[in-house]
From TrEMBL:
Top-rank taxon: Bacteria
One Gene Ontology term of the molecular function aspect: electron transfer activity
InterPro entries cross-referenced by the UniProt entry: DHS-like_NAD/FAD-binding_dom (IPR029035), ETF_a/FixB (IPR001308)
Name the UniProt record assigns to this protein: Electron transfer flavoprotein subunit alpha
Cross-referenced Gene3D superfamilies: TPP-binding domain
Sequence intervals crossing the membrane: none
GO biological process, one term: fatty acid beta-oxidation using acyl-CoA dehydrogenase
Length: 52
């Protein structure tokens, strides 16, 4: 489970989704739009070895 997680990231279209109550970081939106943009930003900032 997530009990031992240092950080919990949530992405959900519903801004009232219960996951946001336990997440350290949350983004409201479509995961299929957000993840590609997030990966692109990581790569642009020299994080190629950490990007999926």
């Amino acid at each position: 489970g997530m009990n031992n997680s240092d950080y919990i990231f949530a992405i959900n279209k519903d801004d009232k989704a219960p996951i946001f109550k336990v997440a350290h970081y949350g983004i409201v939106g479509d995961i299929y739009e957000i993840i590609p943009k997030l990966i692109q930003k990581i790569k642009e900032n020299g994080g190629e070895s950490y990007a999926i």
